[in-house]
Each structure stands twice: as structure tokens, then as C-alpha cells.
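=== Structural record ===
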Amino acid sequence: MEDLSFPIGKYVPQPFSQDQLKERLITILFLPSQLENSILNLDEYQLETPYRPGGWTVKQLVHHVADSHMNAFIRFKLGLTEDNPTIKPYNQDAWANLNDSKIVPTNVSITLLHALHARWGALLNGITSEALERTVFHPEQNKEITLWHLLGIYAWHSKHHVAHITALKERMKW
């Protein structure tokens, strides 16, 4: 089950480097297209298939990425404009089971992600290492998290969920 839960492995924090920053920014910029390509030509039955036993459906997963990345964008803006703001956690499983994640077509969240990531990319364009040292406070983890660490998590998150879908397609021979 480990491979199905973490097809690219778990997130491993990396020290700051310009090369890592460039890679993470590229990942953020291209996530909408990669996610869109991963679901291209899937029919409703396939979109309603869980990506792993006990996991969300592909449709819920696409909506989850939009939910998560909307929160990420707000967390970055708070972190860049306030001193160590407390970020709002949310119950991602509960969100994935709300009606919008079940009935709204995936293209709505794909369109949202294209717009959101264009804004997020513009926000991060030219960001300095000093700005990435700014922190937010995560109350569930009871710790300060740097924006650099958050950027790493969300770049990983992008690849992680695209890999869930592509791995499912390979297993199912779609």
C-alpha cells in the first residue's frame, strides 16, 4: 500500500538553493497543465474510480488539489505580509466529501488551478531567499514553518497527486 499512498515517496525537506527554487517554481507553474493532462480523455466511470483502495476518487482528488492550493496561496500571501501569522488548518477528508467535490465537473477545478497558479507564479516571481525565510505558524503541528518549506511541500504535493492519477491509469491500463 505504501507505493499507492506515496508513489513518489514522502516529502523530504531540502536546504535552500537557487536550483531547488527554480525547480519548485517550475513545478508550481506547470501543475495545472500536468494535472489536466493526467485526466485527459478519462470518462465518468474512470473519474469516479478511487486512485487506491480506500482513497478518494480521481474527481475528488482533482478538487482536493484545487482546495489545497487555494489554501496554499492564501498561506503564502499571509506569510509575506504578516509576521508569523497563524494559518487555518482544514479537514481535507471532510472537504473532499462535500457535494462540490462529488458533483462539480473536474474541468471547473482545472480552470481554477490555471488561474490560481498564474497568480501564485506571479507572486513567487523574483521572490528572495530572505522572503522565503519568513514563517507561518501551523497550530495543528504547533510549530513555525518557513515559506521555503511550504513551497517544497506544495511542489511535492503537485507531483504526488499527478503521480496518483498516472499510476492508476497504468495499473488499469487506461
